[in-house]
Amino acid sequence: MGFYDLTGTTGSMFGGLGLAIDSPCTQVQISESKNLIIDAESSDSVAKIVENLIKSLNLLNINLPNNFSVKILQSIPEHAGLGSGTQMALAIGAALNQLFGLNLTIAQIASAAMRGKRSGIGIGAFAQGGFLVDSGKLNDEIPGTAMRHTFPNDWRILLVLDSTHTGVHGAAELQAFQTLAPAKSALRSMVFERMLPALQRSDLLTFGVYMQVLQAYNGDYFAPIQGGRYASRSVELALAWLKNNGAPCTGQSSWGPTGFAILRDQQQAERLQAQAQLAFVDNSNISFKIVRGKNTGASDSGIAVSEVIIKES
Questions:
Q1: How confident is the model at residue 308 (pLDDT cuts 50, 70, 90)?
Q2: Phi, psi at 265, each rounded to 5°
Q3: Measured between alpha carbons, how far is 197 from 192 in angstroms, rounded to an integer?
Q4: pLDDT above 70 as % of the chain
């Protein structure tokens, strides 16, 4: 949902806010195998994740009884701003950790998977779910969770998806952070003294007001890279429509293009989803999906010692 400190003046930088949601989902099956096998339908990024983990965990040199196969049962769309890379890397790493009894912590798995370079939200979402605030990046340490709160059960999230646009990623993302100068102000006090108390008392209207401030802060800062406050003009128009039609809280997830509206209940979500689909019926690349907050972390549904299935939203 954004960073609250882009100044770097306090020693730690970034400090992110985010939420685990129940869909779309990542589900990975790791099984013992005579040879290394990666699902032929998997993307190149999955093969890269496996390669990095083999090197980082030194799996070639610790005398494992067998190799392993990787099968992706479900995956989050890549480069949509939904944290797909982090969840995929942690799911594969956690499954390998359990299959081969490596006894690693989630932080150690994240480090081996080279995650948490700026934000710890994806790691916190994998570990425990819920609404999360990380402490920011300090030196080479993975950002820790400064605060976690159960997301209200009645609230719903309406995702606004753009099938024709991809968010900034890879080399372009690295260059962006090297190019942009530190911001001149931060939102630390607003987040911890106003925004989070509103969430804790389930005050969506007040929470939404502060979310708009956070979104403007991030949108203006990253505008030179993504071409404006939002990565997708279509998503921007849809979010403006939702805001004008009663959505109390809207924003862009990460680099986008995915946008979101947080709504008070299922009834409001279904009503706005139906109305938005009609309003944007001529814009075939835009779709609307209702999801819930996910207040639990990744689950292990392994069925045998030789096979582990890790699932995470």
A1: low
A2: -165, 175
A3: 7
A4: 94
Crossing angle of helices 44-56 and 84-99, rounded to 10°: 50
The set of residues, in sequence order, having a beta carbon less than 8 Å from that of 57 and lying 6+ positions away, is 93, 96, 102, 104, 112
Evaluate if residue 195 carries a pLDDT over 90: yes
**In terms of DSSP bridges, do strands 26-33 and 14-19 run parallel, antiparallel, or are they unpaired?**
unpaired
What integer is the mean pLDDT of 51-73?
Answer: 85
Instruction: Give the C-alpha separation, 208 to 142, whole Å.
Output: 28
| Cα–Cα distance list, 248 to 104, 156, 265 (Å) | 41, 12, 12
Residues of 142-155 as b/e, b for ≥16 C-beta within 10 angstroms? bbebbbbeebbeeb
CB neighbour class for 103 (10 Å; exposed up to 12, middle 13-18, buried from 19): exposed
- Average pLDDT of the segment spanning 195-203: 97
Q: Name the residue among 44, 68, 168, 154 with its Cα closest to residue 118.
A: 168
Tell me the CB-side half-sphere exposure of residue 251, using CA atoms within 13 A.
29
Beta bridge partner(s), residue 300: 310
